[in-house]
Every structure is written in C-alpha cells, then in structure tokens.
Amino acid sequence: MSDVTVQRLDDGFDRWDELLTLILASFAYMNGRIDPPSSALSLTPQSLKEKARTEIGFIALDGNQLAGCIFCRPEAESLYIGKLAILPSEQGKGIGRRLLTLAETTALERGLNALRLETRIELTGNHATFARWGFRKTAENRHAGFDRTTSIEMHKALI
Prior knowledge:
Strand content: 25-35%
Number of strands: 7
Largest sheet: 7 strands, mixed
Radius of gyration: 15 Å
Structural class: alpha+beta
Oligomer: single chain
Strand order of the largest sheet: 1-2-3-4-5-7-6
Shape: globular
Number of helices: 4
Distance between the termini: 28 Å
Helix content: 25-40%
C-alpha cells in the first residue's frame, strides 16, 4: 500500500469516466442482492463531477490507477459518508480504512464529532466491517414505497 496516494477531488480532476467505472465495479456485487437497486447505477460522469462540487470527495491512487474513493457531506451534527468504493482488486489493502480516517479528519476540522453512513440491510458483511471500524447501528430505514427495512444507519463518534 506504500504506492497508494490519496488526494482531494478538485476542478483539475478529469477522469470522471474512470471514477464511475471504479464505483460500479466496487458496487457490482450488490446487483441482484439489494432491493431497491443501488443509486450508484444512476450515476453518470457528469453527476459525479457535480457531486464532487457539492460534497468533499477524495480518491486513492495506486500508481496511476484509481483504486478507491469516498464522498463526504457535512450535516448539522455529523459528516455523512457516501459512495465509499474500493476497486475489487484493491480491497483488503487498507484503502477503505485510510479513506475513512481522512473523513474523520475532515469532520473534526469542520467541528463535527461523528461520521454517519447508511448501508443496505442485506449487506451484513458491510455491517460487520463498519462495526470493526468503530461504527454502531443507530437506526433502520426504508426507501420510499417499501414496507420493510431496506437500510441501516450507522454512526461513529469521533470524540
């Protein structure tokens, strides 16, 4: 992992097609497992560019290859974590933990004392991973039109 660098997404970034490919590859295992389907499927290079303009985005690069990303959105009490994605071939190398550590720093710099995320109810492996990283389940939610829980909310206190 020593070759992996992390940088903030900014106006100089121009690899939106590759970033979309990374997110879709990372989320592909969810296809057919979660209902409703992931919002990642509706992303476009242009919508990612806009997301990076309105949120705080970071990418991880392994050499010149996009290896991971995270999008953070400040809220009243916490920093919301979305689209944490690691290229399948790069998973297990600590990139996700490194991106979340950067999110923690970002939250604290903005006076926010927690991270918040949502993960689908069916993805119990994600629940366990986030729990190992210090998150705890705080709510069950449902998407519009569903009469059952479709996701859980998890928080990580930073102070």
